[in-house]
Amino acid sequence: MLPAVVKLCCGISYPHLRSMTGLQRTAVAVIGQEITHLQRQNQHHTRMPAGLMYNDATLEAVPVKDDHPSYLQQAREAMIKALRVLKDEDGWEVEITESNGDVICSKMMPGAKRIFRLEAVLEASVDQLHELLFVRVEEMQQWNPSIKQIKVLKRVGPETVITHEILAETAGNLIGQRDFLSVRHSCKQKSGVFLGGAAIHLESLPPQAGYVRAENGPTCIIIQAVDDDPRKSRVTWLLNMDLKGRLPKSIVNQALPRAQLDFIRHLRQRLTATAAPPQQRGR
Ligand SMILES: CC(C)CCC[C@@H](C)[C@H]1CC[C@H]2[C@@H]3CC=C4C[C@@H](O)CC[C@]4(C)[C@H]3CC[C@]12C
Q1: What is the DSSP string of 44-98?
Q2: What is the CA 185 to chain-centroid distance, rounded?
Q3: pTM of the model
Q4: Where are the domains of the chain?
Q5: Using a 6 Å CB cutoff, which residues line ligand 1?
Q6: Which of 33, 85, 178, 266 has its CB surrounded by the most CB atoms within 10 Å?
Q7: Where is the START domain positioned along the sequence (predicted)?
Q8: Which ipTM was obtained for this model?
Q9: Rg value, the chain, Cα
Q10: Superfamily of 2-276 according to CATH
């Protein structure tokens, strides 16, 4: 199914491919590699029962009964969709330009849904960011006060996890309590690290009392080394979120880019905190 979708996309976008630059080329390159990976993974899936391959017995179990082999596919499809959106340069409007160079643009999608793209350069290596944003994702609540909890419910593969995220009340004041269920996938390429994600449904974890189940994705964070400095990385983050519930669009469309800036600010604080011991900070 996915290879067919990608072939179709490639066909549609072929005339545009010749005029592409930078990020766009990266995005297209990764789509090709993803197909190859995916085809290999799919061969495994047809031979082995779902869930047997990477079951990690040490994981603290919130039961994920509704296991099926397509989580990896869903995550990859989400990543490809998100990359296609980033690749298309048309229709982006600048929302916020910060004095430190961070820029947030937004774009209206079919269905009158606004999505947001943040671009920032961070003082951290690609590996450091991969570690903080994917490998040690459960620690995020320690450095990001907007998040009450992130829990890895299941490891679907070495680079694919199912997570449950609960927003902190501080972040939710205006928006109300939200939680998310997502499949998240990380893909390391020469050109950088790609983190993709999409909302999923699990019968074993239905929306909880007092929370509105929001949907995050298809989304993608691209982390690329800055050419002349391996200690810096360029982050391109597509935020595509449906907060659900009855919220005025104007409020949502202000809250989302703000949430992106907050996220990056906390990430920077976390990076400074680890870079220098407390007595040296600020010198
Ligand atoms: C009140 C509203 C507007 C707040 C929105 C909060 C947003 C910005 C929060 C909620 C859940 C968060 C995500 C939770 C998990 C991950 C997985 C990780 O691999 C990359 C970061 C990422 C993708 C987070 C990005 C920021 C995030 C999307």
Answers
A1: HHHHS-TTTSS--TTSPPPP--S--THHHHHHHHHHHHHHHHHH--TT-EEEEE-
A2: 8
A3: 0.77
A4: 2-276
A5: 133-134, 137, 146, 150, 165, 167, 171-172, 175, 180, 184, 195, 197, 216, 221, 255-256, 259, 263
A6: 178
A7: 88-276
A8: 0.95
A9: 19
A10: START domain (3.30.530.20)
